[in-house]
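Kindly review these tokens for lecture notes.

. . .
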Amino acid sequence: MKKLDQRRMEAILFLFCFLAFFGVLGHFMGVQNMISTMMKTAYTLLIDTVLYIMAVSVLAGALGRLLIEFGVVRLLEGVLAPFMKPIFNLPGVASLGG
């Protein structure tokens, strides 16, 4: 029961701090300006960062799958095996993360 009371107090304290922070910020900036700034920042972050990273990840995954499908990874394994085995005692494909 004591642990439950502690969690409730943590939740109440967090909620108080959260509302106080945004209340003070909204008081000085104005609520409309604060929400507008937050939305513009979220939009810019989403469009300029997250979607760009997602596009790069999709293209890298597609390229990696093509390289595996057409045997380029096996070719690189054969080329890198002589270097990887004596240095790290690993097969050649380990240098590619596969």
Summary: Residues 2-96 form one domain.
